[in-house]
Amino acid sequence: MGTGIFSLTKKTALITGGGTGIGFGIAQAMINAGANVVITGRNTEKLLEAQKLLGENCKVITFDVTQKSAIPQLIQEIESTIAPIDILVNNAGIHLKKWALDTSDEEFENIIQTNLLSVFSLSKACARKMAGRKNGIILFIGSMAGMFGIDRVSAYGTSKAALTGLMQNLVTEFSAHNIRINTIAPGWIESPMFLSAINSDPERKQKITNRIAMDGFGTVDDVGHAAVFLSSAAARYITGVVLPVDGGASVNF
Ligand code: NDP
Hints:
Layout: E1 12-16, H1 21-32, E2 36-41, H2 44-54, E3 58-62, H3 71-81, E4 87-90, H4 105-133, E5 136-141, H5 154-174, E6 179-186, H6 192-198, H7 202-211, H8 220-231, E7 242-245
Parallel strand pairs: 1-2, 1-4, 2-3, 4-5, 5-6, 6-7
Helix pairs in contact: 1-8, 4-5
The site of NADPH dihydro-nicotinamide-adenine-dinucleotide phosphate (NDP) has 29 residues, from helix 1, strand 2 and helix 6.
């Protein structure tokens, strides 16, 4: 159980894509810090498996974040049947590894829908509630691909870079309501998405390994602990930052 200024006791967090990978790591770390979590995703089976591991402080809701018109109702339902949402973690995301010249407009739009537009809708719906309570935390999950160019991820990288622009603009409006918004930029973290993106590409794997200053890839727990810190009272005065959790990859030449 989390104690002191890093505790999330009595807090409720909504974590999109919380059934797998980084979202699961965040859910686990937040529960360890004392929070209750609601995890969402499209695949109910994956969510129920995660719930078995996470225990009684985890609720699951099957929900596709691209169903934007249903988002206000989702938030209303969680707030009235579970608890007010103190922390929103916009973690759900999809990846596309393709050369820009081979990427169709539809594929590009699809990535933007999930990784950017649903984040705006969810953040807006939660912030409306949080503003009334004058208290709230919103986290975005960015990427190294949003910080510098990487070949074959033009749609994905664009969606992640755009999150930084969205965060900066929301900070100027939401701070008056005591809502903090920060982005975690994970480096290369062992998750289903990461493994499927690099397992078939040893050259890319080598390039990434050379880039990371510390030893090895990150774990989902590394990201989870950063999420707990940014959501806790210890980060009371921190808003609008992009925090790399990357073993030094973003500064290593
Ligand atoms: P995963 O593929 O394990 O997780 C993605 C999660 O998002 C899944 O639980 C998936 O659940 C959910 N999801 C995807 N689309 C939707 C949707 N339309 N509606 C609801 N849920 C959805 O990958 P990661 O854990 O690696 O990725 C998590 C986040 O971290 C992403 O935003 C990713 O971009 C980011 N990231 C990951 C890095 C890494 O190295 N792993 C590096 C940098 C950033 P379901 O399929 O059930 O819908």
